[in-house]
Specification:
This protein is of the alpha+beta class and about 400 residues long. The chain is built from eleven helices and 14 strands. The strands form four sheets. A four-stranded mixed beta sheet has the order 1-4-3-2, with helices on both faces. The protein has a four-stranded antiparallel beta sheet with strand order 7-8-9-10. The longest helix has 20 residues. The structure holds zinc ion.
Length: about 400
């Protein structure tokens, strides 16, 4: 019998008379009772699907696996081993899930409900930032130290983009209520997280809870400021404060809504794939919003530099493991531009399609290369390689010799 946790296993063992203790289980009276510690198995992290996902890069998101992988939770390997061992133990001829066992015991008999616990769940919107919570979030989300965050916020304060930062209040004063909708509008213009969100200003207002200074909030100066001129650290902190404001005054619906949907799945009113579809749609929307941020506003620190601009769609081209690819491959109408590092055109000439060559091809449409190998003459030669893209699955190239004409290789 498997219980969800040790204490439950002990109670059951007592009732069943399984009194002798073995490694990770209780045994006796024909029973072996073991336990889990909550979840012994969890979803694998993104890099289990592709090592390349170990670092989060905006262009890879969202990562939605077709088949989910699972791993044994870090500190629960021992109990997992014990349970696996018991399942193949000769003494075991059947397996009972302890919770189901209670149901089975009652089946067909009259049951008396002795107590009902009613739990009301409300999802509270977050409060605005005081200095400490801002520093905590900036550390968790952006990896900044408390001092870094303090320096950035101090600089933003000096630029009059945020209010006085050394505050421990979490509310605004009553007289500020009327100004909130206008401020939210300004924030939405500067940070395109959402469009026209609902504004419940009353949630962030409480004069009685404001001591010397009210909570940290963006100011109207934001409207006339070109944020692309700010250092990345300051823009990131500003983005956090902006996002927090929108959450605090917006609809606190997200979590509650998903919980309600999960319940519908449980009751067979909504299919699991329908639920998943909703999650995927929401995730894609969030990512799309994040990717419309200007580079300086990027909350995800992409360590990848674009190699150049895609000749087909104008989006940045990045270097992957095996190819140099256009970041537009995840668009609704995906852009298929990609240069394979082991491209036949180059490998036949014993040259690698390097980042440098790709950069030149993207910038000028051509690149001069020396020491190309000729399979015909077995000699090497110099030539200009031209990008001759026809929009097909593979990108085509063309060779140009000074004064000697052209050689084309086209593939579909
Ligand atoms: Zn493209």
């Amino acid at each position: 019998m498997i219980a969800e946790k040790p204490s439950v296993a002990q109670s059951i063992a007592k009732v069943l008379g399984a009194t002798s203790r073995e490694d990770g289980c209780l045994v006796g009276n024909g029973y072996i009772i073991s336990w889990c510690f909550g979840h012994l198995v969890e979803l694998a992290s993104a890099d289990a699907y592709d090592p390349h996902y170990a670092k989060w890069v905006l262009n890879d998101l969202p990562i939605i696996p077709e088949n989910w992988k699972y791993v044994v939770s870090a500190d629960k390997g021992k109990q997992f081993e014990i349970l696996s061992g018991l399942m193949s133990d000769k003494r075991v001829d059947g397996l009972v899930c302890a919770t189901e066992a209670i149901c089975t015991a009652c089946a067909g008999k009259a049951a008396v409900v002795q107590s009902i616990t009613r739990q009301e769940k409300t999802a509270q919107p977050p409060k605005l930032y005081d200095l400490t919570t801002l520093q905590r979030d900036a550390n968790r989300i952006l990896g900044y130290t408390a001092q870094q965050t303090l320096d950035y916020i101090q600089s933003l304060y000096e630029k009059k983009l945020v209010t006085y930062p050394r505050t421990d209040s979490k509310y605004l004063t009553d007289d500020m209520q009327d100004a909130i909708p206008e401020l939210v509008k300004t924030v939405c213009t500067s940070f395109p997280f959402v469009e026209n969100p609902p504004v419940h200003a009353e949630r962030v207002i409480d004069s009685s809870k404001v001591s010397d200074h009210h909570v940290i909030i963006l100011t109207r100066t934001l409207a006339g400021t070109d944020l692309s001129g700010l250092p990345t650290g300051e823009t990131s902190i500003l983005s956090l404060i902006a996002a927090r404001l929108l959450c605090a005054v917006g609809e606190p619906c997200v979590t509650a809504e998903w919980e309600a949907k999960l319940q519908q799945v449980e009751h067979g009113e909504l299919s699991a794939s329908g639920f998943m579809g909703g999650i995927i749609k929401l995730t894609n929307g969030l990512i799309k919003n994040a990717s419309t941020l200007k580079p300086g506003q990027n909350l995800f620190h992409s360590d990848r530099e674009a190699i150049g601009i895609c000749p087909r769609c104008g989006k940045p081209v990045y270097e992957g493991k095996k190819s140099l690819y256009c970041s537009g491959y995840k668009d609704t109408l995906p852009c298929g531009f990609s240069l394979r590092k082991n491209d036949r055109f180059f490998s036949a000439k014993k040259k690698a399609l390097t980042r440098k060559i790709a950069a030149a091809l993207l910038k000028d449409g051509q690149v001069s290369i020396t020491g190309l190998y000729s399979q015909k003459t077995r000699n090497s030669y110099d030539a200009t390689v031209l990008l001759a893209d026809t929009g097909g699955k593979y990108v085509n190239f063309m060779l140009e010799f000074s004064g000697k004409g052209q050689e084309r290789t086209f593939r579909k």
